[in-house]
Amino acid sequence: NFEQRASHLCNLCADDKFRPVLNNILFDEGYAVVTNGHIILMIPVNEISNLEGYEIEKLNGKLINKAAFKNLLKFDKIVSIDEDGICAEMTRCNASYKVKINFAEKGKYPDYKKVFETKKKPLSKNISFNAYILREICDVVGDHLLVMTPNGTDTIGVSFRGSAAKGIMVQVVIGDDSE
Questions:
Q1: With contact defined as beta carbons under 8 Å apart, do 13 and 22 qualify?
Q2: SS3 36
Q3: Exposure of 40 in the CB half-sphere (CA atoms within 13 A)
């Protein structure tokens, strides 16, 4: 099952009718990847779930809509994962309920690997970030001590000492370098 803090992944997805693929969580090579076009976060699935390695492998290359993922988190356990989706189960009042959460249709998800390979360049002295987005990233990872590093092309890399999670945020310049 996914831990409840994984619900913060949904808050980092876009809500974009023109780029609907950004409304999804991508599972790839053992990571959950989310972006809204301004930030991107990849976190190892084993850091936000108790899924076994073979179950994580079944998620490889799959997209799940953020609303469907929120629904999945309401269930007690994941029963199975197949090519079409995730079967989950909950027990309430001595009754068992099962549901199949279907994966989203394939779309052209941004090449997140390429984003993490950007060349470094100097940043402006004065930068700004949405503190709520930073908090959401920290909540997903479960660690509120983050390391921010200039990462090139007007971006800041975000990492954590106790996690393999990493992210990139686009900086917002709020002053000029001559100050």
A1: yes
A2: coil
A3: 19
139: amino acid identity, one letter:
D
CA distance 20 to 118: 25
Give the separation between CA 41 and CA 110, rounded to whole angstroms. 12
What digits encode the pLDDT tens for the residues 83-135?
999 999 998 888 889 999 999 987 788 888 887 776 555 555 566 777 788 88
Distance of CA 153 to the CA centre of its chain: 21
Closest CA to 31 of 22, 39, 42, 40: 42
Q: Report yes or no: 44 and 50 within 8 Å, Cβ to Cβ.
A: no
Q: d(Cα 30, Cα 90) in Å, to the nearest integer?
A: 25
Q: Which residues contact 88 (CB under 8 A, 6 or more apart)?
A: 72, 75, 76, 77, 78, 79, 98, 99, 100, 101
The whole-model pTM stands at 0.82
d(CA 29, CA 93): 38
Retrieve residue 1's tokens. Answer: 């099952």
Long-range contacts made by residues 46-53, C-beta under 8 angstroms, separation at least 24?
A: 47/141, 47/142, 47/163, 47/164, 47/165, 48/2, 48/3, 48/5, 48/6, 48/9, 48/140, 49/1, 49/2, 49/3, 49/6, 50/1, 50/3, 51/1, 51/2, 51/78
